[in-house]
Amino acid sequence: MRIVSCVILFLLAFASTASDSKLMDIGIYRDVSITKIQIDQNARGYDIYGDSIEIGHLYSKDRFTVKVASGKCYIYKGETLIGGYDTIRFVPNHTEAEFSINPIAPNYRSRIYYGELKLAVESGKRLHIVNRVPLHYYLAGVIESESGAGQSLEYYKVQAIISRTYALKNIYKHAKEGFMLTDLVNCQVYKSKARYNKEIYEAVSQTDGIVIVDENLSLITAAFYSNSGGQTANSEDVWNNPLPYLRSIKDPYSEGQNNASWTKRINRMEWLQYLQNTYQYPIHDSLARYQALNFKQESRKAFFVDPAYGIPLRDIRRDYRLKSSYFSLSEEGSSVVFSGKGFGHGVGLSQEGAMKMIREGYNHKQVIHFYFTGIHLISFDLLEFYTKDLAEY
Questions:
Q1: Residue-by-residue DSSP string for 96-165
Q2: Comparing C-alpha atoms, which of 165, 103, 126 is closest to residue 378?
Q3: pLDDT single digits (tens) 305-328
Q4: pLDDT tens, 48-86?
Q5: 244: preceding bond cis by omega (within 30 degrees)
Q6: Cβ–Cβ < 8 Å for 92, 76
Q7: 231: how many CB neighbours lie within 10 A of its CB?
Q8: For the purposes of burial, counting CB atoms within 10 Å of the CB of 227, is it exposed (0-12), middle (13-18) or buried (19 or more)?
Q9: Alpha-carbon distance 379 to 142, whole Å?
């Protein structure tokens, strides 16, 4: 019995370090075409490599500029040209080294990151910018970017577990592009290292390696958004893929929060013509016309008016850039008014609802179990150990 206990303790000790130390390649500044940047050292130092050859060092008083020209990355120290290369890497010489990056062409807001900076030319005209960073630092940056710096430690634990699960499940999502994940909403927002609340790092550390799995021990689709409006959505109503852990539930914790409700007004004839032109909706039928102008959605639905018309609410949300697909419609003079609930796709965890649950005394585990049905929390490293063992058996 004592030997078994020692083995378990060894596995737990291993699990506390392995997965969160995994190096992640994150494509940064993916929403802007940058051709020239400035790099400064923010802490510790860096060795600089051009095409695998060491070409310099980045220390506190140094400033380097890299720009794209003739299909190469040209690097300058101050005003002095060092050379042109296919790839340039700023490699940290300390685990806590960090750099600042300031886009010059075009002028764009600067950011600070831990880890390595990798630069190449993309499509012959823009910089391909990648931050290679340990998972735990990446998660901290995601948490602050997605949740802000004013939340509690217990809420940050929720976001840490969800963001870790997403990252590890989608680690090869953008492999063909030369990185793992982007810094945008199509993955997880990652605008900088976490800078303003040390509890974010504590949350990552205290949940080290913990991920969410389904009944088959597979990493779940750890979906989250701002606010459910009082009811979450089934996954198939948004993505056509039914998942047993992404079920619609009543969510009283999202009600009354900042993003719980919204309105939008559009021209009535524009709305009717949209329905007719896009979906062949019978706007000249008196009953169908009335329903199109007086649509009620007391609980979440997948289709507008009636499934027989084949009008997904998610498509209306996309076409009119609505905050959610959870809305009702009413006629007011020459306009129709969208009265909406929530902000986001509605599948999985409501961030504002989770924050409210934490304020009411629930812990991070209870919050995750509330929003995801029939799931389990487990160390990712132990998960790999068990699933490998089962496969071999």
A1: T-EEEEEEEETT---EEEESEEEEEEETTTEEEEEEEEEHHHHHHHHHHHHH-SSS-HHHHHHHHHHHHH
A2: 165
A3: 999 999 999 999 999 999 999 999
A4: 999 999 999 999 889 999 999 999 999 999 999 999 999
A5: no
A6: no
A7: 21
A8: buried
A9: 20
